[in-house]
């Protein structure tokens, strides 16, 4: 453990440790993550594995220390410069946060790429029991990193780690390799969970992080009232579960996206739904949480809108 003097210093220390072949991790919250973005772009460009945890707080600017989800764009669309992507995982509990950090190290090594664990502030402010059991979730063996700068002792050519390419052709080829890697992530690393996706439903609720827990509670209330709803929770924000959302939306009359923001993930949901049905948004900002009853009330208020719509076609059920 090393306490750096700033997020700028910490992120560049991560670059150095990763270049030396070490498994390395850093964390901060929103404005501190912004200070790390230059180094994160450098790490992605140099193909260095690292784990970065962002416990999002309300913004913009210094904002406050209460929960938020308004860093979604920054995390999933590339918060620094250049055509790079981070693999982004979003936990909804303390147990899942611990599990995803473990997974993040394996994924970072596998893809030689930074991985971000994106938790909203409530994850960082609550206490829940967790289980560290290697039988439950075995650790993968650490693969030797032949590319690392571990000290050239004459038994191999020197390794050079850089994101600098002054000639356009080599840089274009490097970018093509990076994009191929991101395509492999999109193919193989999509993660999501759900509730009620195998049952008939009229409204599909999409939410991530702790907001999804409130939506999960609302789901029980709505079902007791006879309003048929289902929940789809993205766990990987990049790659985004677009195909799963599209398939689930095809069985719904409407989609409701709930976030602790003014509306960010909703743009990806709308793109995935592709006009198959209306997509509504409900959000809070400033650190205010979305209670379960508020989600349920929003669904009740919208119900007349989609009850007048034609029944959806029945497609293959999404596995959840």
Descriptive account of the structure:
This protein has helices spanning 7-19, 31-46, 72-77, 94-111, 121-125, 168-188, 210-224, 242-249, 265-273, 292-307; strands spanning 25-28, 50-56, 87-89, 114-120, 192-195, 203-206, 229-234, 236-238, 254-259, 279-283. α9 (265-273) links the parallel β9 (254-259) and β10. The two termini are 38 Å apart. It is elongated and about 75 Å long. α1 (7-19) runs parallel beside α2 (31-46). It has two domains: 7-188, Thiamin diphosphate (ThDP)-binding fold, Pyr/PP domains (Rossmann fold, 3-Layer(aba) Sandwich), CATH 3.40.50.970; 193-307, Rossmann fold, CATH 3.40.50. It is an alpha/beta fold.
Query: What separation lies between the terminal Cα atoms?
Result: 38 Å
H/E topology pattern? HEHEHEHEHHEEHEEHEHEH
Number of domains: 2
CATH superfamily of the largest domain: Thiamin diphosphate (ThDP)-binding fold, Pyr/PP domains
CATH architecture of the largest domain: 3-Layer(aba) Sandwich
Shape: elongated
Uncertain segments: 314-320
Helix/strand/pairing category? alpha/beta
User: What fraction strand?
Assistant: 15-25%
Instruction: Kindly report the average pLDDT value.
Output: 91
* Multimer state: single chain
CATH secondary-structure class of the largest domain: Alpha Beta
In this structure, how is the largest beta sheet organized? Answer: 5 strands, mixed
DSSP summary: helix tally: 10
> Remind me, CATH topology of the largest domain?
Rossmann fold
Number of strands: 10
Share of residues in helices? 25-40%
Which strands sit side by side, in order, in the main sheet? 1-2-4-3-8
Radius of gyration: 21 Å
